[in-house]
Backbone:
């Protein structure tokens, strides 16, 4: 996921930081990046590069434009995830999101709506086994400002790794196209 980022962003927005796993992965590759993060609960991640705001992102006033949005927004219930995504795409220059795959196919109007307001560059479909104790199929959506013309679609084959899904594939940017 982080390897989709080709140059170090100066400022990243993480609207639902949780434990901070996405930010930790980002800092492994880009240690100088500043992050503004929101969550309704405290995050255990403490770092001088992090500005943490304990607030519901949906209620926050965003008066800056981050170089990148890196997010795994909450989707329980699904409507909250849609609200997050709608707000995020209106402030992004670039966004990389982990989303339920159903987000893309659950409605005829949603893909058409977003293809007019954001450029969907990559969709990376992940196997169900990526998140422990989750039965939801997920994908990584790599987006930019603009409208969509060409989408790179990749499907990560869980059969390739029989025992356990290897998250390093995402960080290393390897792909197995279906």
Residues:
């Amino acid at each position: 996921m982080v390897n989709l980022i080709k140059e170090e962003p100066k400022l990243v927005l993480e609207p639902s930081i949780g434990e901070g796993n996405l930010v930790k992965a980002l800092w492994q590759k880009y240690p100088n990046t500043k992050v503004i993060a929101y969550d309704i609960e405290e995050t255990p991640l403490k770092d001088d590069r992090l500005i943490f705001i304990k607030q519901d992102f949906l209620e926050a006033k965003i008066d800056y434009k981050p170089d990148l949005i890196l997010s795994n927004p909450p989707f329980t219930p699904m409507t909250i995830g849609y609200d997050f995504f709608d707000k995020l795409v209106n402030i992004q220059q670039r966004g990389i999101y982990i989303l339920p795959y159903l987000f893309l196919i659950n409605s005829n109007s949603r893909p058409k709506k977003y293809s007019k307001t954001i450029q969907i560059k990559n969709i990376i479909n992940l196997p169900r086994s990526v998140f422990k104790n989750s039965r939801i199929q997920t994908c990584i959506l790599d987006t930019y400002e603009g409208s969509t013309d060409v989408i790179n679609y990749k499907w990560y084959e869980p059969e390739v790794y029989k025992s356990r899904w290897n998250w390093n594939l995402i960080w290393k940017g390897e792909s197995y196209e279906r």
